[in-house]
Structures are given as structure tokens and as C-alpha cells.
Amino acid sequence: MKNLMFFFATALLTITLTFAISPPASADVPPPPVNQVLGLFDATIDFTGADIDREFCQQCHVGSQVERHHALVTPTFGCFECHTLTDGTFAEFRECTFCHQTSPHHTTAEAQARHCSACHGSLVADYDDGHYIPSYATSSFTPLTGGVEPDPTNHPGEYAGGCKACHMEDIGQGIASNATTHHGIGITECSWCHDVEAEATLSIRKCEDCHDVNSLHNIQADSDNDGVITPGTETGGYGHIGANADCYGCHVQSFLAFMSTTAAEPTIPSITSLSATVLTAGQAANLTIAGESFMNTSGGETFTPVVEITKGDNVVILYPLPAFTSKELITPVPATLEPGNYELRVKKDAVVSNKMTLTVAADVQVSAANLTEETIVITGSNFGNQPGETTLGNTLGTVQSWSDQKVVVLMPEAVEGQTVTLVTAAGAVDNTEITAAKATAAVKEKIKGRANKGSIKTKSTK
Prior knowledge:
CATH class of the domain at 3-14 and 266-361: Mainly Beta
Structural class: alpha+beta
CATH architecture of the domain at 3-14 and 266-361: Sandwich
Distance between the termini: 39 Å
Largest sheet: 7 strands, mixed
Number of strands: 25
Oligomer: single chain
Helix content: 10-25%
CATH topology of the domain at 3-14 and 266-361: Immunoglobulin-like
Shape: elongated
CATH superfamily of the domain at 3-14 and 266-361: Immunoglobulins
């Protein structure tokens, strides 16, 4: 049973730092290729390429990865899983590919179980969620996996009645074909997409195992930037239900005008960026979320968003939201969230967006670091009771004791005036300059020979 918490909006601190994904260049209107404004881009990633570095990965994995990775630390997953120390020197660990040497995408338990919604939200269905798949034979109105060329003589390469009407390759914009994107995402079983026992191995009914009727008819962006999505009145090429031209893309003989009496349905929201990916525990904040399809009007009904933040079985619903349009919303985040990694999604009625990771880090405060011979005593607050690590440059100290307000670490190389860094098990980081405690004769001699002259004040920086 999930634990639900509803949080109601109040005036909170606004966060202004914005991270954004850099999409391919704007596609054609009308497509192909399709405009890349919803969900993930029609592209694949070659992890053997020279361009795969931290900057490349952060196009999608926005914000600081330091706190996100430190929040993974548990009694069975420690610091040295990532930080390799040899003769007092750390091996390089800041480039993603030093650990992720093959694509980490679609290797998770959820992905291998074909539970696509865990990351993609309602844009893709789970194959075993009981969604509707037509059982009747395909007809001239049924979309094809590719499509047909209505006028190959005068308009060669232009398709209708299937996915290729919009989802076509464009090398210049880095957009891949359907075949490339599906074969390049780590799918290990051909039968997941192909009916291997049928004469025609490509069947729309197999596609509907994941790309179901309901999700396909609720994918739409706000093409005219009026702050709301109204199916049938949008510019063609920005989704599946914006205009008649979008209908023709899938249903080649569907020349019926869009009917305003269509049953009310929420379009599927999609998140592209968060104004901050790391928040401080104990501090309320306002978070700005950018994306598409956060609100829409359908069948005379307006669908509005809520924000859902989850960690395990704990679910926090943030509602009502102080401000939102189809492309941006502001949500209050309560000060009650415990440190750790959370999954954040936007929901409208029964449909849900893709997943974003929000990290809540403890507000660690280092007040002093006193040196006594070869030992540093670090005092402050919110260190946690599980040991983290302390470093002096690239040198890792030996922790002798660790509590929420005091850490004792052995560092023979330390002298007054140097900076010691403390990283808690939850990933919070702070540092301070070392000062000498009541010095013994040995310490005084050490300071005299190696430390900077003058009075040094202890300070804490974030």
C-alpha cells in the first residue's frame, strides 16, 4: 500500500537556475521528420563514440550528478564503488563512461520487464497492463507500421497512413528511422516487436503491445503557444491529434473532419527540464517545470496538471499549483522531504509524464575543523550517523569515528590553513579551513614549518 501525502500550495522561495535539454534543430512543418518537442528524441546513442562525455550525457541528465550519485550510498553500496584509490590518489571518476561503459538505457529491471511507463510515462504503455488492443482484422483505416506513398510520381518519399508519415530519418538533424531507434535501444527479444510466426513479421497489432490506441490518440503539443492544447485547432505536425493533417498521417483514408463532440481525453504531458535538480532538505522551494501538454481542452473539458513525487512507496501529490500553462508550471516543494533521490512526474487525470530525478540533499553545516597532531576533529550538524568520507585535496582521510555532529579523521599530511572536505553518506558536501587546536610542541613545530603565516579564520562554504 502506497503512502500518499497531499501538499497544498503556499508562497515559497523561488529557484531561478534553469537547466534545459538541447534538442536537434527544429524539424519541418509539416513533417517528416517529426518535430522533436515531446518525449525523447528519435535518436540512438553510440557509447563507443568519442563524443560521449559528461557534457553530452547532461543534455538529458540535467543538473548536478554529484548529489544524485552520493544519495545512492547505502550500507551495501559504499564510496569505493565509484572512487578507486591507489597510493592515496583517486582514479578519474567524473566522466560518465568510466563506469557506464555500455549503454545503461533499457538495461534496468523495469525496462527488461517491458514496463516502459516507468521512465516514459503514458507516452508508451506496458505490454502487460491490460490496455486495449483491437482484435478485429486490419482495414484501410488501420495505420500501417510504415505507410503508403499516395503520390509517388509527384511526391516521392512522402508517406501517409502509417508511422513513416512523420517518423522518418533525417541525418542532418540527428533523427533516426523507426527501424534504427527500435533496434538500437537494447531490446533483446525479436518477438517483442515482431510476430515471428506470421508471414508478415511487422504487424501494427504487435506495435500496439506498447504503442496502444489510447496513448497514440493523446500525444499532442501546444503548436500555437496560446497556453492550452485544443485538439483539431492546432497546427499540423506537432502531435497526433492537432489537425486533420495529423489524422491523415496515421489513417490514410480518414478524410472525416475532426468532430468537436469527441470524448474528452487528457493529452499526455512531457517534461523537458527542471529549474533545479537538487534541493536542500528542510527548506521549502518553488520548482519550475518546463515541457509540453501540461494542460489541454478536449470535448469541452479542460484537463489541468498535478505534480507527483515518489520515493519507494511514499507518494507526495503537489496540488493546487500556483501557476501553469501547457508548456510550464510552478510547483511548491515542501520542506518535509527527507534526503534522497525522488522520481518526479506530471499527471493529468489518468495519464502521466516521463520521469525526472529530483535529489534532496541534507543541509550539512561544518563549523570547525581542529587539528591535533595527525588527527582532525570536525564539528557541525547534519553529518548523519552513517560514515561518509573526508578528503584533503586528493587524499582520503581515515575515519576513526562519525556521528551526526562530530567526525574524527586521521590525516597525517594535514596542516593549518588547508581545506578539508566532508561528504556525508547522503551526498551532502561542505568544507572548511583547518585550524590548530591546543597545539602540542610537535604540532607547533609542524605549523611553523609548513603552514601559512598569519591568523586564519575557520569558514564554511557551500
